[in-house]
Each structure stands twice: as structure tokens, then as C-alpha cells.
């Protein structure tokens, strides 16, 4: 049983268990102990997004790591995929990200990458948890064995230099107008710099973080802000990122929102045409729209599904030797270029398609026709196994029987919050909305709903 780690590291409200400075201190010691070895002083990269609480967690991590005899390289605000990239390029033994991604500023989180830039497997996270509960006095370094910490000022520049190599051939973005919404998050420096250095005319949104405005009515959670700006300025493209820039939602030149499924479809079809799609397969989650599967099938591409979470998508990609996958939410993983979801890598790949085919995004995204899909999230008082809920199971069976082959039902609990998520998909919008409400009502009978405070 995990005490600290969830589906995407440790996450919660800052200064409430488990997201306390004591937890960060213990994690720092555990990482130093796990990745050090006799005769080798571990080096750990530490980066963060722009949340107010990031300062205290950064200091606690640094104290824990250095007190156990390992060294720290601190980057300051940097996208999560940038931290994964620098962990490998700077030959660090591990990288730690301080971020709660798309959550509001009151939350924060801690996740760890290995030396290869990939998120840690479950077994290593469990080992870290065991070390976190050890008596710290047994691992403390003394004298000259205490670790050192330094901050690098060019972290964003290193990351952007890498990203610029991903535009195909001699292409540039001269004459392309892009609205970039950084959600007042970790990419507020890197994203505008990247597109400007490639020659684009950049219109910035969400690039004035103050510690409390990350993800607040902007970025990929609220793409309507960028959509309005695209229409207002006549831009060719809108790029919206979340707080740590590991996910991407696009806006086409008409102001229409293009989600992760559409990006998966258009990029996969282009990759196959260029002989770049490994094993002609895309990996997505159970939440991806049926329209994605149909679009890929029409081009001879297979879709494999995993449970929700980009870590599970990446695990299946590595197991099956696939190189492209992602989530409807905008986590898009191009394993030839990144080890985790990277919103800027994904944006560049879409721009490659637009430039090479000389077509606007609205036309390219038209390769996929979405099935109507309803997703309802409700706070719950508990998370009992779904199969133990008789009213819920009966409602699900009844809905699936009515939908037949023209629909799907996906039920799951959130991995980071006390919520249940009910997704129903089918060809008739009114029918699936009624079906989703029917299943939600069943959860109310079997589990009971809570208010936002969990009561």
C-alpha cells in the first residue's frame, strides 16, 4: 500500500498531509539515499513551476538531499518535460519536479524522474517510501561529505535550444502568428522564447506569474481565452499549456479548440506517411474518443488503450516499442524526442505538419470526427472497488446494452482527488447525457457524494 505516491507522484494541498515540508525533506533524503552508491556522490536536478509554495518545497528538498551527502542542481521555474530533458543531458542521477500540473495554486506536488528522464516505476517509488520512513540519523552526512547545491541560470535556454532542433529541415516560423498561453506557469519564459527564436510573431497570454494565478482562467484548462485572442488577432494558431507545460490544447485559425485526440490523429497519420510511426500503432487511454479509433483505422493505424494516466501510456509504449501516444487531455508523448508528455514538443510536431502540407490546422484536424462524449465528475465520500457497487454495476450494464456497438462507458476514480468520473460516449448526444446522469445517480445510492471539502 502506498502512503505518499499516487498515480502522478505525491500531490495535495500545500501544508496539508502529505504535501508538507517534512514530506519534501524526507523525499530529498530518500532520493539521495536511493541514487547514491559507494564512491559516487549522486547529483539531483530540482525544478519547479510558479506556485507560491514552490519556494518552501524547493528549500526542503535541497536540505534533505544535501544533508544526506548528494549534490543539487536547481533550475528554478522550468516545464516538467524540460526537467526530464536536463536530468539526462546533465547526466544527473535523478530529477525532482515541484508542481501540481493543472491543479489550482493552493496545491502542489512532487514527482521523480530517473537518470533516463522517465518517471519511476512503482517498485522504485515504493522503495523511496520505505526510505522516507527510515531514521534520518542513519543517513546523515558529516563534514566534507555534506552535499553542495547550486543554481543554473540558463536552464530555459538549454531546453529551448533542444526544442528548436525539432522543426523539420530548414523550416522556420517566419510569417506565422501564434497566440501562446502559458497559464502563468512553468513555461512562461521558455514558450515565447522558443517561438520567437524560430521566427514567429508571438502574442503572449499567461506570462505574468505571481505565485497565485497559475492555471487561473487561462492556459489549457481555459482555452477559450486564447481562442478569442486568435480570432481577434487573426492568428494562425493558438498554443495553450497547463501549469507545468506537459499538456497541450490547440486553437485553430477559426478559434476552434483542438484537443489531444485530434492531435493524436493528425500527427499519427502524418508520421505514418513519413515512415516514422513505429509499428503503425498509437497508444491512448480509455478516455480517448471513439472517433480517434475510427480515424486511425481508416489509415491502417492500430489504437491501443491503457488506463488513465500518461505514465501508463508511456509504460505501454516502451513495452511495445511504440513511439507515439497520449491522452485526450493533451498529454502527448513523442518518444523519439521526449521521455514524457511535452506540450512544446507536441506544438512543434503539429507545426511541422502544417508547414509541410501547407494546410491550416482546421483542415488537418478534420481527419477525425468526434463522437459525442459526456464526462461528469463528482466528489465522493469513499472509493470502494467499482465491482462491489451493485446499483452502479446494474446501471452500467443497462446503459451498455442500450448503446451496443455505437457507444462506450468508462467509470473510474481520480488518482489524485476524492472524485469519481463517469464517461459515456455514443452517437446520440441526448441519450448519452441521460445515461451519464443515470450512472451518476447510482453512485449517489451506493457511495454518496461529498462537498468540495470532502464532507
How many domains is the backbone divided into? 3
CATH topology name of the largest domain, in short, is: Alpha-D-Glucose-1,6-Bisphosphate, Chain A, domain 3
- What class would the helix/strand composition place it in? alpha/beta
Summarize the main sheet: 6 strands, mixed
Class of the largest domain, according to the CATH hierarchy? Alpha Beta
Strand order of the largest sheet: 1-5-4-2-3-6
Question: How much is the average pLDDT?
Answer: 95
CATH superfamily of the largest domain: Alpha-D-Glucose-1,6-Bisphosphate, subunit A, domain 3
CATH architecture of the largest domain: 3-Layer(aba) Sandwich
Structure, explained:
This protein has 455 residues and is of the alpha/beta class. It folds into three domains: 10-153, Alpha-D-Glucose-1,6-Bisphosphate, subunit A, domain 3 (Alpha-D-Glucose-1,6-Bisphosphate, Chain A, domain 3, 3-Layer(aba) Sandwich); 155-370, 3-Layer(aba) Sandwich (Alpha-D-Glucose-1,6-Bisphosphate, Chain A, domain 3), CATH 3.40.120.10; 373-446, TATA-Binding Protein, CATH 3.30.310. Helix content is 36%, strand content 20%. The protein contains 14 helices and 18 strands. It has helices at residues 21-35, 54-67, 80-89, 122-132, 155-164, 190-197, 224-233, 260-273, 290-298, 310-320, 343-357, 361-365, 390-403, 429-446, and strands at residues 10-13, 43-48, 71-77, 94-98, 107-114, 149-151, 177-181, 201-205, 237-241, 248-251, 257-258, 281-285, 302-306, 324-326, 332-334, 373-379, 407-413, 419-426. The strands form five sheets. Strands 1-5-4-2-3-6 form a six-stranded mixed beta sheet, with helices on both faces. Helix 6 (190-197) links the parallel strand 7 and strand 8. The protein is globular. The two termini are 24 Å apart. The relative contact order is 0.10.
Amino acid at each position: 500500500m502506498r502512503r505518499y505516491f499516487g498515480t502522478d507522484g505525491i500531490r495535495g494541498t500545500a501544508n496539508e498531509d502529505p504535501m508538507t515540508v517534512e514530506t519534501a525533506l524526507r523525499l530529498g533524503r530518500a532520493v539521495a539515499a536511493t541514487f547514491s552508491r559507494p564512491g559516487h556522490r549522486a547529483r539531483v536536478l530540482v525544478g519547479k513551476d510558479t506556485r507560491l509554495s514552490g519556494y518552501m518545497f524547493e528549500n526542503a528538498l535541497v536540505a534533505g538531499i544535501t544533508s544526506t551527502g548528494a549534490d543539487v542542481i536547481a533550475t528554478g521555474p522550468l516545464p516538467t518535460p524540460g526537467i526530464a530533458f536536463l536530468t539526462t543531458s546533465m547526466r544527473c542521477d535523478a530529477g525532482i519536479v515541484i508542481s501540481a500540473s493543472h491543479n489550482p495554486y493552493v496545491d502542489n506536488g512532487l514527482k521523480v524522474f530517473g537518470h533516463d528522464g522517465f518517471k519511476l516505476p512503482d517498485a522504485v517509488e515504493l522503495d523511496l517510501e520505505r526510505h522516507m520512513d527510515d531514521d534520518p540519523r542513519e543517513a546523515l552526512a558529516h563534514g566534507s561529505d555534506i552535499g553542495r547545491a547550486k543554481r543554473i541560470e540558463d536552464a530555459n535556454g538549454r531546453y529551448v535550444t533542444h526544442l528548436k532542433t525539432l522543426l523539420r529541415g530548414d523550416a522556420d516560423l517566419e510569417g506565422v502568428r501564434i497566440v501562446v498561453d502559458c497559464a502563468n506557469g512553468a513555461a512562461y519564459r521558455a514558450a515565447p522564447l522558443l517561438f520567437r527564436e524560430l521566427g514567429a510573431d508571438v502574442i503572449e497570454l499567461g506570462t505574468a506569474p505571481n505565485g497565485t494565478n497559475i492555471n487561473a482562467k487561462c492556459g489549457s484548462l481555459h482555452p477559450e481565452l486564447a481562442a478569442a485572442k486568435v480570432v481577434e488577432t487573426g492568428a494562425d494558431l493558438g498554443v495553450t499549456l497547463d501549469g507545468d507545460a506537459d499538456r497541450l490544447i490547440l486553437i485553430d485559425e477559426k478559434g476552434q479548440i483542438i484537443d489531444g485526440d485530434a492531435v493524436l490523429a493528425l500527427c499519427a497519420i502524418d508520421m505514418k506517411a513519413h515512415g516514422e510511426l513505429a509499428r503503425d500503432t498509437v497508444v491512448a487511454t480509455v478516455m480517448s474518443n471513439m472517433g480517434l479509433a475510427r480515424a486511425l483505422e481508416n489509415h491502417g493505424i492500430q489504437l491501443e488503450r491503457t488506463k488513465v494516466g500518461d505514465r501508463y501510456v508511456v509504460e505501454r509504449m516502451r513495452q511495445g516499442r511504440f513511439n507515439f501516444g497520449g491522452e485526450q487531455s493533451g498529454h502527448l508523448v513523442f518518444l523519439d524526442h521526449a521521455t514524457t508528455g511535452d506540450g512544446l514538443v507536441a506544438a512543434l510536431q503539429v507545426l511541422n505538419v502544417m508547414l509541410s502540407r501547407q494546410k491550416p490546422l482546421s483542415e488537418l484536424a478534420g481527419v477525425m470526427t468526434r463522437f459525442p462524449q459526456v464526462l461528469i465528475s463528482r466528489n465522493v465520500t469513499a472509493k470502494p472497488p467499482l465491482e462491489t457497487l451493485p446499483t452502479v454495476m446494474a446501471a452500467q450494464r443497462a446503459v451498455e446494452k442500450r448503446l451496443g456497438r455505437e457507444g462506450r462507458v468508462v467509470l473510474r476514480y481520480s488518482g489524485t482527488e476524492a472524485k469519481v468520473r463517469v464517461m459515456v460516449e455514443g452517437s446520440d448526444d441526448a441519450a448519452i447525457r441521460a445515461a451519464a446522469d443515470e450512472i451518476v445517480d447510482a453512485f449517489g445510492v451506493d457511495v454518496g457524494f461529498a462537498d468540495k471539502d470532502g464532507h
